């Protein structure tokens, strides 16, 4: 009897191995999308089977679903740890690293991958490409469903220069257009030192794109025409190599705009499209050309209407389809109609397709309307309260699309689905479910953002960015202050590390206006984080002035008891904000007091912050020890944000005591981490630091570092980083005896440096001291003394000697002696 279970287990193992072999063969043939549902089902039944996890990760990644693939790894790792007490195999860990390294840094959003063949408009693609050769702004206009977006995608495919595709349908606040464009380009609003940024996001875009050849596609602009037009006009005026292709139901109205009206397909192309889509759902479909033409004409030859109708041939015949459509549309087949009538035709076809849905399908479809930019499978299942079979059925009927490991709904269909959701009286409940799902995801991700798994979870949350914004907007507007505060707090670590806190700064400020000067009950820490977020936005100074003191009390209460707060990153951010404009000693005391907490990231952050306290007291050895403890802690976790900050600070101390080789090694390690996070302006600053560390011994190597830093600064669109590179080039010019060039570069740097940028202090001091050295070289002793005195005042650190402060800020020893002597 005892042999039966063992035999059954062997048979089950053999059966699973056969399944895995078959699926692996399918993946080699490129059938990644087809095997995903089966792999999900198998892995749900066998969550500890690593080969299944690896196959699903590869299938998702091949379909563009990097974030989903990384989630599969994390879920499998957790199951193995909780149930077996083991780590994933070396093979699975290797695959995880492979997926992470496939795209370790942000890059421009590519056009969506077409799911079907392009029919009937090859000549139009060529005409638009030719028009873009003559004009720098081309807008494709036409009613919803006429094919503007697909036409733009095909134009992108023929484009030879780099393309960035920005879908604006999910954006509701026109003021956030520049931030959305930064995100689409893979750019940050601010660096790793997040307390200050480079000001206006639009000007950051201008700086990033001023010398770059790029086709920027702005899709679905009609609901934000004024704001999109203003941004496009500014960028085109300042960036001569930029071209813009927009899609909208109306013109942008910008000078120099060329319009290309997108009209319905001609009769032949419409029939070809219907036939192609019909054969996709009904293999062996043999069309009756006259019947197909009658259907297409009744649909005004609108591509979306044709696709919705053709999808129904899975269950009905062509004659029946034609009869149903004729009854529903109640129009004769009489050629092209006016735009408003075409809109009514499309709406009627969507309504007809909707009415043919089963009850569960209609329920899932209308609930899906709350997603701003599509959804992964798990989120869609939860919010829509449905199953995978229903979602797949909606995709078969062209009401959903599947791409990149996510479902999405076209804007025209989503608008109708939203109406059906309102009519069903479910909007508030589904919005609440959507917000709850996003909150749970962000809370689950937050601890992993402070670990080695950071890059994977950043990708997961980046895929949900628009929906995080939408969930917060709904919660604030609905008066759900507690939910809004927790959503903002749970997303904040992602927002700060990714450098996109401005996306929710206005919503955080609106929430603070709603709650007043005291936190909502039970949400003290979240309230303090909202203050930090709002302080990073356009109303930052006023928010900080009004809310800093109650936020300080709230954060102190959360982190003064035996139980720690939920969001440790807030401690580091609190210190950064208070260092420049607040109660720095109190913030230093609060964060430093966390050095004995059991959470390792908190301990590392506390050591990092306490080091600055020791430095301010002139205790360099204690500061060095604290920075080393921070570096050790962050390294052990594999966390890149804190490690890069601590390594940079430790390198500064090493350089100050003359250990240039050690300083260079620490800087290079920090540079690698900053590159992985896509923090280009921090890369620029670190390269400048490395150049400074070897300018005396190897000026040629320093010149190369400064040139590369300038490229990173331009790529980031950072005026502050550009100023740092100009200061560095000033030092090089001074070393080479070109005092006039040095003085010009120093003056440009001083004019451009952000006074609130924490790293800018060192560059300011070096620039002022450099001007002093240049004045000395010209024999202007009075001018030199004035510059040295201003450098000394700028470098003043309470409790530290002036030479020590200057050394920590990176001045060469000969300069320290010269400035110190004045």
Automatic annotation (TrEMBL):
The keyword Glycoprotein does not apply. Keywords: Two-component regulatory system. This is SARP family transcriptional regulator. It comes from Streptomyces nigrescens. Residues 1-100 form the Bacterial transcriptional activator domain. The lineage of its organism: Bacteria, Bacillati, Actinomycetota, Actinomycetes, Kitasatosporales. It comes from the Bacteria. The keyword Glycosyltransferase does not apply.
